[in-house]
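Students often ask why inverse folding is considered easier than folding. One informal answer: many sequences map to the same fold, so there is more than one right answer. In these notes we will look at a single instance of the problem. The structure comes first.
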């Protein structure tokens, strides 16, 4: 259904925001550390006409059945445990920051795969905030758009995620990785060298325990930081690893992942700047091994995908991207080989793991 079909006239504004893939720096953002994500070409689009009576009517093309249509009233937002909470959460975040909103008719349509670890949630939050900014002339910068989105997801939806997804959706640009210090929110664009191409392969596996496991890892990191006498694990440099090795399990391995992963982000930034894809690829493999063995957020099918990718001649590196427990693998391939590599990896994975992969080759 088109916007005009839904509401009787074309939208006053149209805004959008991309999904993302994290190149390296996983489970570091809620430890105050470094991340290196980039945007994908798939985006969420929000068409919007402002209202002045406090009503919000929202329709999503990506939801099946009657639940695709939802309504709420400004000032009476309440969590429903459905997708509309992401929209309500952004509205509440903006209200709390003192912005005056009047209500809106909205239509949402997204090409970002939902629940694949490519952050359809941040794409939704950022595109909604951008549409409201444009419709109501809000003086809101791109970092504030990101923090409003994070607030919506953490406080309204109740998902304890870090700031990476919203920051890259709001500040990222095609062809660049966003080197982000999640403590200071200082962000720097690092060009992705023309020698490489990214391939994303979704394993098709979804773990039901993701939210619980995520919360457990967060608590373990906080406890490890407390045992080490630092504010956050970000404050432990690689030189501090001997002290990490002395921690009891599971804190030793959890902290070792975060400390070494932060260092790998810095090394990967240097490798991209030096146009050294082989070195960047080695860091991808090391990151995957650390997530698998120390952080324990991988699953056998995802490990198989990385293994299959590593046997390809034109592949520099591969790793689980996103929170884990299923989801997608990001592959660093030789420029020009992306489609062929993706096809062969998907074919072998389908055959050997009897699973259904989805492949994305974002043109850089
Ligand atoms: P991911 O961000 O990795 O895709 P999440 O579980 O964090 O996965 O977010 C997915 C949820 O975000 C969906 O279940 C839905 O509630 C909401 N969502 C994302 N995109 C849309 C959309 N286009 N329309 C409606 N809801 C959406
Ligand atoms: Mg998400």
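Output (designed amino acids):
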């Amino acid at each position: 259904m088109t916007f005009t079909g839904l509401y009787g006239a074309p939208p006053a504004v149209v805004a959008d925001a991309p999904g993302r893939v994290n190149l390296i720096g996983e489970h570091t953002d809620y430890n105050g550390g470094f991340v290196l994500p980039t945007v994908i070409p798939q985006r969420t689009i929000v068409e919007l006409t402002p209202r002045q009576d406090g009503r919000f009517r929202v329709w999503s093309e990506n939801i099946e059945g009657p639940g695709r249509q939802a309504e709420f009233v400004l000032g009476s937002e309440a969590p429903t445990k459905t997708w509309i909470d992401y929209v309500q959460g952004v509205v509440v975040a903006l209200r709390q920051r003192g912005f005056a909103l009047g209500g809106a008719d909205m239509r949402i349509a997204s090409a970002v795969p939902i629940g694949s670890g490519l952050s359809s949630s941040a794409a939704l939050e950022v595109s909604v905030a951008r549409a409201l900014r444009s419709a109501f002339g809000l003086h809101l910068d791109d970092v504030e758009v990101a923090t409003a989105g994070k607030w919506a997801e953490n406080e309204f939806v109740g998902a304890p995620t870090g700031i990476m997804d919203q920051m890259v959706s709001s500040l990222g640009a095609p062809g660049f990785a966003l080197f982000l210090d999640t403590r200071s929110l200082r962000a720097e664009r690092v060009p992705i060298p023309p020698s490489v191409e990214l391939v994303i392969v979704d394993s098709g596996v979804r773990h039901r325990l993701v939210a619980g496991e995520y919360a457990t890892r967060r608590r373990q990191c906080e406890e490890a930081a407390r045992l080490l006498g630092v504010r956050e694990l970000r404050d432990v440099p690689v030189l501090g690893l001997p002290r990490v090795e002395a921690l009891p399990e599971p804190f030793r391995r959890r902290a070792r992942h975060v400390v070494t992963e932060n260092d790998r982000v810095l090394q990967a930034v240097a490798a991209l700047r030096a146009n050294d894809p082989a070195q960047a690829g080695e860091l991808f493999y090391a990151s995957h091994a650390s997530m698998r063995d120390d952080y324990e957020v991988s699953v056998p099918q995802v490990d198989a995908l990385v293994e299959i990718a590593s046997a390809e001649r034109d592949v520099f590196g591969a790793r689980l991207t996103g929170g884990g427990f299923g989801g997608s693998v990001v592959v660093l391939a030789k420029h020009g080989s992306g489609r062929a590599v993706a096809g062969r990896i998907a074919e072998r994975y389908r055959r050997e793991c009897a699973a259904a992969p989805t492949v994305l080759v974002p043109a850089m």
